[in-house]
Amino acid sequence: MIFKSLRIFEEEGKFLKKIVERDTNELPVGDILIQVKFSSLNYKDALSYSGNRGVTRVYPHTPGIDAGGIIVESLSSDFKIGEEVIVTGYDLGMNTDGGFGEYIRVPKEWVVKKPENISLEEAMIYGTAGFTAALSVFELIKDVKPEDGDILVTGATGGVGSHSIKFLKKLGYNVVAGINKIQGEEYARELGAKDILLSEDLNDKSGKPMLKQKWAGAIDTVGGNPLSTAIRELKYCGVVTTCGNIAGGEIPVANVYPFILRGVKLIGIDSVQCPMEKRKQIWENLSDDWKGENLTKGIKMVSLEELSSSIEDMLDHKLIGRVILKHR
């Protein structure tokens, strides 16, 4: 079968982007062939698109770490032709051709059957960003209740941050949104944030091992000094989850005092190799109790031909909200 794909080529040290026609016989070996109906844009896709070797080692390549579609070929008795399925994480879109093509072929172990109460479009509105946010909230609410106090969300206008606000609001928590630019304030409030803080307010450089207690919990999506600040501002027995490193991979002013004097917990979130049973549980939550009424808020739907423009905006830090790719 012939299909269209956004393909990244490396030529003389430069990375060229082209929409090309391919044959499904060119796809990697796998158990399940899926006709992709929707995908979504994530920062990891933008890195792969720009030639980042930490994400994608070999080019030419098709990014797209998310895919929602319909099975057209199956070598597994667990999956039938015509079933609607979701694939996020693992190696999809990294070194295995991803959802920015109209077809993907993947191992059966990567595939989740779509829950009944959610459409493929809605599943990709969540995508890896929503799935990661849900994992973060899932871990945080084990120990932090709404009555314990405000929850800080850093990088609140990004994909993970915006979904985290929606989920926490749905579950009855008060959220304070940490944003990079004042232009994102209206969007964060529309999502459900009670208060807004700019990034400079979440970037303490005093060097103090602990700061005034402010947050019952925090969902950090950026890493670096904002994460360090959040840890040092957590209340007694507070919990912070972390899943990103756009502000840095190190934690400045790292020390043990918040952990041993305030009982703070730091929980790492990995959506890539998340165990399948937990993965299924999270998707059930997203299709049922956690599904918000404003799921489409801040969502931009684009075609394959329009996708590169949105990727460039993401790389230039101009993108607010989520971009969803709809294949023909």
Q: Structural class, from helix and strand content?
A: alpha/beta
* Total number of domains: 2
Which fold name is given in CATH as the topology of the largest domain? Quinone Oxidoreductase, Chain A, domain 1
What is the CATH architecture term of the largest domain? Alpha-Beta Complex
CATH class of the largest domain: Alpha Beta
Q: H/E element string? A: EEEHEEEEHEHEHEEHEHEHEHE
- Give the tally of β-strands: 15
Give the low-pLDDT segments: none
Question: How much beta, percentage-wise?
Answer: 25-35%
Ends: how far apart?
Answer: 15 Å
Shape field: globular
CA gyration radius, whole angstroms: 20 Å
Contiguous helical run count: 8
Full CATH superfamily name of the largest domain: Medium-chain alcohol dehydrogenases, catalytic domain
| Major sheet description | 7 strands, mixed
The helical percent reads 25-40%
Mean pLDDT: 95
Structure commentary:
- The chain is of the alpha/beta class and 328 residues long.
- The chain folds into 2 domains: 142 residues, Alpha-Beta Complex (Quinone Oxidoreductase, Chain A, domain 1); 142 residues, Rossmann fold.
- Helix content is 25%, strand content 27%.
- It contains 8 helices and 15 strands.
- Strands 3, 4, 5, 6, 7, 14 and 15 form a 7-stranded mixed beta sheet that branches. A 6-stranded parallel beta sheet has the order 10-9-8-11-12-13, with helices on both faces. A two-stranded antiparallel sheet has the order 1-2.
- β14, α8 and β15 form a beta-alpha-beta unit.
- α1 crosses α8, α2 packs across α3 and α2 crosses α7.
- The two termini are 15 Å apart.
- The mean pLDDT is 95.
